[in-house]
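To: structure subgroup
Subject: Chain for Friday's discussion

All,

I'm putting the inputs and outputs inline so they're searchable in the archive.
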Amino acid sequence: MQPLTGVRILDFSTLLPGPMATLLLADAGAEVIKIERPSGEEMRTSQPKIGGDSVNFGLLNAGKRSLAIDLKAPGSIDKLTPLIASADVVIEQFRPGVMDRLGLGYEFMRAINARIIYCSITGYGQTGPKSQIAAHDLNYVAESGLLAIAADSAGAPVVPPALIADIAGGAYPAVMNVLLALRRREQSGAGCKIDISMSDNMFTFLYWAMGEGVTTGKWPTPGGGLIAGGSPRYQIYRTADDKFVAAAPLEQKFWENFCELINLDKSLRDDGIDAAATKRAVAAIIAKDTAATWTDRFEQKDICCCIVKTIEEATNDPHFVSRGLFARKLNIGGHSVPALHTPVSPTFRAGVTEQEFPTLGAANDFLN
C-alpha cells in the first residue's frame, strides 16, 4: 500500500505550483481530483502538443482525475459540497480572497469538514502589503534578493534557467506542509489552514548570504561570495572548444587535488591571498584544452569537477538512465513519452509503468 492511499485531494490550482504539488502527492498514492473550469485550465492549451494534447499539462497532471465545473454558476457550490465533506486536503492558488468570494473559503469548508487541510499557494502570502500584487517566478526571485547575486560578466542579473519560486518555493513547501498537517491531524483530529508564500520561501536559499550579511555587515554582491562566483573553487571555466567546466573543489583536499591536476602555479594555490588572480590563472589553464580532454583528465579523480551537459546529453547519461529516471512512461496523444521524474521515492510509488492524464471532465460523475 502507498503511504497516501485513501487520502482525497481537491485541487483547484492551475499552471505549475499547485499541479506540481498534487502530482507529487498523487505519486505517493493520493486520489487527486482536479477542479477545472468548463473550458479546462490554461495549461491544456500550452505548447508543445502531441495529437492535440499539451505535453506540459500531461506531465504535470498524470494520475489525476478531472472535474469540470463553473464555480460561479448557481448551484455549483452545492454540487461540490459532498466532495468537500469527503476530502482530506484542498489546494488552491488564487489571489487571497478569491476563494472566499467564490464561496469556497476555508471557514466555509471547515464548517462542512472540520478535518480538512486547506493549503493556499500564492506569490506573497495571504497577508502583507504585496499580497494582492500580480507577479511571476522571476518577480519572486527578484524581490527576495536572490536574483541580485546571480550576475553575468557585465554585472547584470541573469534570468534563472528554472522556475525556482514556483517549484522550490511553492510546490515543494506545499507538499511538505500538507504531509505535516496530515500527521498532526492524526494526533489532534483537526484540520488547518496553510499559507504558502513563494517569495517567503526564497529566503531559505539565502542562508549563507543572510549569515554573512547580518554577521559582518557586508552583504554578498553580484558575482561575489563563495558560491555565487566570488571564488575560484566554485566556478565555471570555458574550454578551448567553447564548452564549460563546472569546477566545485570547495574543500581543501579537493582543491589541492585540483591544483595538482591542472598544475597550477604553487604561488597561486592559496586563493585567500588573491582570489581574482587565482581565478584568472585557472581560467587560462582550462581554456588551453578541449572538454573531451578535461573529461579524460577528471576521470576517477577526487576533485568535484565535470563538463556542463546539455539537457539532451543529461537525459542520455548512462548514470541517470541506469537509475530509471525516465523508465516510467506517459501516454500523450497516443504516444508514449517519459513521465516527469519527481522526488517521490520509488519505494512509495505504485508499480505503474505507463500513466494517463485526465481528459477534461472525466470525473464529473462525482457531481451526480
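Points worth raising on Friday:
Residues 235-315 form a domain with the formyl-coa transferase, domain 3 fold (CATH 3.30.1540.10).
The mean pLDDT is 95.

D.
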